Amino acid sequence: MANVEIRHLLKRNRIPENDVNLLIFILYLPIGLILILLRSVLLLGLFILGQVLPDTSVSQKLINKIACLGLGISIHIENPKSKENVNVYVSNSLSIFDQIAVCSATGAVSPSCRTTLEKVLGLSTYCFGSVTNLDNFKNNIKQFIAEKKTPLYFAPEEKITNGKALLKFKTYPFEFTNKVQPICIKIDRPFLDISVTTIGSTFISDMFYFLFAPVTNYKLTFLVPFEKTSMSDDEFSEVVRQNMATSLKIQTTDFTSNDIAEWEKRTLTEPPPRSQNRPPTRSLNPELQRMSNQVKEVLPHVPLNVIYSDLYVTRNVDSTITNILEGRLHFTPEQPTTSNTINQPSTSSSLSSSSPATGASTYGGKTLFNTAASSFPKSASERSKSFQERKEQLIASARRRYIEKHNLDIPF
Predict the structure, then answer these.
(1) Is 411 part of any domain?
(2) What is the CATH number for 342?
(3) Which of 51, 185, 284, 303 has the least CB density, counted as fewest CB within 10 Å?
């Protein structure tokens, strides 16, 4: 992928949109529901064990095994002999349960807020406090390493992606030791191609599909450990990231977890852009046709089908003009034509003259108002004021042309 954009790093749909996958999903649905029921019973037993058993390495391994069985997780270590005893393991981030696979293979624990659900599921997590208080968080980790002699696992991307590229690593996981072993994770779901996570998905929704899918395969590959030597933490993290990307045969990006979160938030909150697709033309509304022609007189460069499409939703001339001026409608501008009705074909011609001083152009003896602002105001209040002024001028210009066209005895 030559240019990786944020949208390439997140999947929108759980199931690929094709007839074959949809048919397989429908046929598998009864089996998946039965699996959810059976695995939920198993996780309920895990809940009881999590409350009864002491928090030791032996009980943690037992709970981890049951959690893998209950979530349908299968772990395959490609090169187990390459694993070394280090204080810190790091990996790419592909799912909410990466730590189950990594901690099962390494015996490490993962820093977390240690919620009740995490403890119940045996996620091999340990609470070191909140990352927002980074100094306290780091001190707790250093004390844990010194006292427990237990390795730690970090996912320095700090945001789950689809694995097509590596995000910028956080540097704090590389501050606790001079030797780090990277682990490359790959995930696949045979028989049923269901995405592990999607845009806007939650912990519960992702967990639901772990219970639903027949099996989720984790393939772990241990890379050669890297030593910091004289490098800074930032340089050290970048060396590790580049080597992981090479092993995974993917690119690295400059995007951070915050960039992904902001993009995801905008994508989920902003309405999708409207297209210029023509609405059903089998029964054109005469009133909407009349309103479309009114808007066309004000904005002659906007295609009639685009105007009609928006009026079909807004039913208001002013609202449609506002949507066009604020860029909510996507269309290819066209040259003003001699026809201004929605049922007649248009004939293209060019503007005969323009007047920069007035911001207007003439065509066929008529004045067409230019909607563009002379400059882009810096503040929101100035932009709003400029927009209102241009809108009023557009409406006044359209009113004047309408009066002239019909020879009405009405003052401008």
Answers:
(1) no
(2) 1.10.8.10
(3) 51
